[in-house]
Amino acid sequence: QPKRKAAFGSVGRRIPYRILHVINQDGESLGNMHRAEALRLMDQHGLKLVLLRDNVEPPVYRLMTGQQIHEEQLKRAEKKKASPRPGVVQKELSFSSAIAKNDLETKTKQIAQWIEKKHHVKVTVRQAK
């Protein structure tokens, strides 16, 4: 099994950057500081440093409790589930329950083609009048 990617870039003491922008657990900016000073703050308050954004200069880290990290991971997982994956196409097909046999066969062939192309297929059957 491939190793599951963590929700955060890095948590804890392994910090590859020298200068960091640090945010405290309440969301207030503490400004830019050296890695050693950020680690000292982390140890003083019994918190963990979590990388939020590394595509900015300097990278943004936040001091978080274990509970805050867990809650953030759950939020990110929910957001990832809710958003549709890029490249996945969803096809929708609806027909009446009084559909003729020939039409039903044609639509099932269409559904089979979509499934072969790895599309998500949603089928709705309406009740006949």
UniProtKB/TrEMBL annotation:
One GO-annotated biological process of the protein: mitochondrial translational initiation
Molecular function in Gene Ontology: ribosome binding; translation initiation factor activity
GO cellular component term of the entry, any: mitochondrion
Annotated InterPro entries: T_IF-3_C_sf (IPR036788), T_IF-3_N_sf (IPR036787), Translation_initiation_fac_3 (IPR001288), Translation_initiation_fac_3_N (IPR019814)
Record-annotated Translation initiation factor 3 N-terminal domain positions: 11-78
Keyword terms, alphabetized: Initiation factor, Protein biosynthesis
Any matching Pfam family: IF3_N
Keyword Nucleotidyltransferase carried by entry: no
Family indicated by similarity: Belongs to the IF-3 family.
UniProt xrefs under PANTHER family: TRANSLATION INITIATION FACTOR IF-3, TRANSLATION INITIATION FACTOR IF-3, MITOCHONDRIAL
Name the record gives this protein: IF3M factor
Natural source organism: Melanocharis versteri
Source taxonomy: Eukaryota, Metazoa, Chordata, Craniata, Vertebrata
Gene behind this protein: Mtif3
